[in-house]
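User: Run a structure prediction on this.
Assistant: Running it now.
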Amino acid sequence: MMKLIRVLILFLCFSSLGVSQGKFTIDNNKKTDKINFKLINNLIIIPVKVNDVELSFILDTGVSKTIIFNYTNITDSLKMKNIEPIYIRGLGEGESVEALKSRNNVFKIGDAIKLNQDLYAIFNEEINFAPRLGIPVHGIVGFDLFKDLVVEINYSSNYIRLTEHKSFKYKKCKKCETLNLEFYNNKPYLDANVKIDNKYITVKLLIDSGGSDALWLFEDNAIGIKHNDKYFEDFLGHGLSGSVYGKRSKIDEFALKSFVLKNANVAFPDSTSIAFAKQFKDRNGSLAGNILKRFNLIVDYQKAIMTFKKNGFFKHEFSYNKSGIELAHNGVRFVKELDQKMNKPDNLISDGSNKTYQIVFDSDYKFALKPAYAIVELRENSPAYKAGLKTGDIVLSINGKPTYDYALQDLMQKFYEREGTKIKLTIERQGTTFSVTFKLEALFQ
């Protein structure tokens, strides 16, 4: 009898905490919370707290583990514990990467909290997505969050809403389509239809909100999944196991039930880059951010369904990079500029932005630290390649305007404009400054 009383007391004590240690719960009375996000290169970047340290994570339906990179910069403040070595495999041509598995971490997203989150910390400094996104990004979260809560993703208003299942109520929506989900290794898949060479093909796709492209298809001549004559070889992305290359092209149609997107972008990754991904033999590719962002979504893993509703992005034309270069953040550089703040008493001032510390040497000019952007990928025979550009070149200005005046995403968007658009770049290479001019070139319509 006394043992039963002790067990009951312990149960009541844990119940009074209001937070489950085994899963994400919403720590407020409404059992729902709204969190704003940044949409960068079609990726959702959300604020999180790990062991009370504020970080930024990619919300990625395509990952089964919660991963932290930039590990060496934040490990001390995170106070990670219960650590053991492990290896993780992902997309790319390289090998598995070494990581440290840490248990019992406190993980918070808005009012959603989990007290014993497993984290996989990657300390390979080459795996760092922040330079290519232009903002600090410390990790990826996916399955661990989606399995516990209903996740609404509003791409048009840049927020997610997290709700406990018992508190979520579906509303009637005549303009919505609901698709069934299938899971393999804790990753969600759905069936869609593509039209290639006037043939309709049903394909099983990984739902990959952590991919910035529109659609990846794995070539399979037996069922008609193949590229047409209009394509070009390109860099497709960077996975945990290295870079991914392949062919870019267009398909006639992509359809999710009644929702049809015409002339959609598609990429066919090289077989060496996707060998690990094809362990699920029924998989035909990935559905990624450039299509997903055209819908507002309700993701419900417990019911194994996903609801799509068209938003304002739906009719946006599919475009692609017509320059042949990819840029990434490459540290900072001192820039001399006119000082709009006269008669400052101190030699060290701040202009209130998040990217400058200014040293004033005279009353007319100041030196400020500004972001620098470098060419990290260059497509052969592209307009930029033919103009003589090289990987490692620092791009100082575009069409007469300093590149540091742009966010990386806005700068890259210049290369997606219409065919024939003139691009003039000022380049720094090994201490020498020069200019190049080229026109954007469409390889297919």
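The chain has three domains: 18-165, 173-310, 325-439.
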